[in-house]
Amino acid sequence: MTDKQILERLKITELNEMQQEAIVATQSDDLILLSPTGSGKTLAFLLPIFNRMKASRADVQALILTPSRELAVQIEQVWKQMGTGFKVLCCYGGHSTKVEKNSFSETPALLIGTPGRISYHIRNESFQPASIKTLVLDEFDKSLELGFHDEMSFIIDSLRSLSRRVLTSATNLEEVPSFVNISESVKTINFLAAAEHIPQVEIRAVSTAAEEKIETLLKLLCFIGTKPTLVFCNHREVVNRISDMLREQGIRHGIFHGGMEQADREKALLQFRNGTYHLLICTDLASRGLDIPEIACIIHYQLGNEETFIHRNGRTARMQAEGLAYLILNDGQFPEYVNEIPLTELPDNPSLPHPTDWATVYIAAGKKDKINKMDIVGLFLKKGNLAKDDLGRIEVHDKAAYAAVKTHRVRQLLKLLAQEKIKNKKVKIGLVES
Hints:
CATH architecture of the largest domain: 3-Layer(aba) Sandwich
Strand order of the largest sheet: 3-4-2-5-6-1-7
Largest sheet: 7 strands, parallel
CATH superfamily of the largest domain: P-loop containing nucleotide triphosphate hydrolases
Structural class: alpha/beta
Number of strands: 19
Number of domains: 3
Radius of gyration: 23 Å
Mean pLDDT: 90
Strand content: 15-25%
Shape: globular
C-alpha cells in the first residue's frame, strides 16, 4: 500500500503544505504541530505512522492519545478508510472494558484512546507498552485542560522505547510539560496564521439583560431559521435548561455534553449531520475534533476565554467556506479579545423555525453483517417506494446503519419494509426518536 493509494481511498488529490511539512519533519525529529481545526492534522500524523509500521511485528507499534471519545473514534475511522491492513483498536470511557481487553487477544498495531482508559489497560496489563515506538498526543492542550495530566504522565513513563513524539494543537502551546520528555531537537510547525486556513467568520453581537438571556436566544434562533447551528454553553446544566425551553416551544434539537451516555452523544451528532436536527446545544466538548461539517452559525450563549472562542468559531467556515458567529452579550459588554461591532437588532415577535424535513431511520445491521450503503439505497427505493430525493445521508456503522428519510414518507416506508430482508436476512427497521 503506497501513500498515493491511500490518498485515492480517501478521495484526496494531494496533501496540503502543512501535511507535507509535518510528514518530512517526523522522519527525523519530534514534532509540535500547530494548525487550525479542520486543516488536516489527522492525516499529517497517520501517514508517517503507517510508513514506519512493520508487518513482521506482532505488538503495539504506535499510540494516539486524544482528549475525547469522539475524537478517538474519528481518528480510528480515518485509519480504517486508509485501508492499511494494520489492525487498529480504539479504547475509551463508556465502552466495555471487557470487550476491549478481549480485543487485545489479537494485538493491534495502532492503539487509539483517551488517557483514562489507556492508563487503565496499562495497569491491568492488557498490552505491553514497552513495544510502542511512536506517540501522538492529539489536541494536547485540551487533554491538559480536562485534567489528564497524571494519566498522561503515567502512560508516557510506561513507554520505554519511544523514538518519536508528535504533539498537535489548534492553538499555541505556552509550554510543554516536562513529563512529555520532548527532545531538544523538536521541530515546531505553526500554520495557525496561514491565510489559507484562517476561517472566514463574520462576528455579530446581540445585547440582552441577564434575566432575558434565554428569551433572547430564542429570538436569535428564530432569526437564524433553519441554518445548521451550534449553541455553545460553559456548563451542561445550562445546555439542559435551554433544551427544556426549546422542547416547550416545540423546536426539535439535539444536545451534546460530557454528562451524557456515549450512545446518546453519538445519536445526537448523527441526527445533526443528517439534517434531522438543524440545531445542537452543546458544551465545549463539541468545539473540536468532531465530524460535524457544514455548520453555518455558531452562537456563544456563554463566553469563555479567547482560546475557547477561537475553537468554537473553528467549527464553522471550514474548508474555506464562510460562517457566522453570534455573541450574546450581557448589556452589550464585549470581551476584551473581541473588537466592538454594531449590535444586531432582533425582531420582537419572530416566527419559530420551520421543522426540518428529515427523520432518521434505524437498520439493525451494519458492516459486520456485510451491509453497505447501496444495499440500503436499493431496499428503500425499490421495496420502500422512495424517490431519490426522499432519501438523504446514510451512515453504516459496525452493527447498525442509519438513513435520513423525508418525514412525510417515514410511516409508509416502515410499513412497506416490515417484512423485507437485507442480504437474505430479516432485520429490524424503525424510527430513531428525536
